[in-house]
Amino acid sequence: MGPAIELKDASLTLNGVELLPKINAYFNPGQLHAITGANGSGKSSLIKIILGLAAHQGQVERHWQGADQSAQAQQIAYVPQQTAFEASLPISVKEFLLASLTRRPFFAWQKKADLNQVHALLQRVGMQDKGHLRLGELSGGERQRLLFAQALERNALFWCLDEPMTGLDQQAQELINKEIMGLREQGATLLVIHHDPDWVAQYADQVWCVDNGLYIQGDQP
Ligand SMILES: Nc1ncnc2c1ncn2[C@@H]1O[C@H](COP(=O)(O)OP(=O)(O)OP(=O)(O)O)[C@@H](O)[C@H]1O
């Protein structure tokens, strides 16, 4: 089972500007939490403070059950919104995933079993014929899918997805959606920033809204 996430007076101020006021919230473990809100309301910032990627005030706690500390570190997956790769990097999609999978340098010997696993990961996101492309040659939607594939490799039970469907075609959306549902069935805790109210209504266990604070949908003052 994934962790519960608890925020106690957690807030974020950057360059003297308060981006998130004090938030108190409890995200139940093993559920799909949709995070909604207007552009610029602070959804990505919320994810960043939960992941420890932005220096916040107050407390953010992850409550795992029955997992030791080192395992916990492996069990977090984050797919950020819009990532760019340096176009001149001489690294292919396959090499990128291999290095991530094996934790070995790009020039190291490649085992058949690892290559098979990379192929299987690419297949899960519909990119099995893109393994030879350089990272800089990928489209925005392909980059998004590659990062999702990289995150899948970790078998994480805590996932933060920042607009995972943005820029994806219908077929890719269906593949990613299937993976997200599979993760939920495995008991992962998922925080998913999403702008599509139909998707949120259909799939989310809990709907949160960032609007000068964090509220369960419908509870805003
Ligand atoms: N490093 C920073 N310094 C100052 N302001 C920032 C910084 N990073 C983000 N912001 C501001 O914080 C606000 C919240 O940004 P954030 O990316 O969290 O919003 P969001 O809800 O995820 O938006 P969107 O739906 O457009 O992705 C925005 O007004 C943004 O301009």
Automatic annotation (TrEMBL):
<keyword id="KW-0813">Transport</keyword>
<dbReference type="InterPro" id="IPR017871">
    <property type="entry name" value="ABC_transporter-like_CS"/>
</dbReference>
<keyword id="KW-0547">Nucleotide-binding</keyword>
<dbReference type="InterPro" id="IPR027417">
    <property type="entry name" value="P-loop_NTPase"/>
</dbReference>
<dbReference type="Pfam" id="PF00005">
    <property type="entry name" value="ABC_tran"/>
</dbReference>
<keyword id="KW-0067">ATP-binding</keyword>
<dbReference type="InterPro" id="IPR003593">
    <property type="entry name" value="AAA+_ATPase"/>
</dbReference>
<dbReference type="InterPro" id="IPR050153">
    <property type="entry name" value="Metal_Ion_Import_ABC"/>
</dbReference>
<dbReference type="InterPro" id="IPR003439">
    <property type="entry name" value="ABC_transporter-like_ATP-bd"/>
</dbReference>
<dbReference type="GO" id="GO:0005524">
    <property type="term" value="F:ATP binding"/>
</dbReference>
<feature type="domain" description="ABC transporter">
    <location>
        <begin position="5"/>
        <end position="221"/>
    </location>
</feature>
<protein>
    <submittedName>
        <fullName>ABC transporter ATP-binding protein</fullName>
    </submittedName>
</protein>
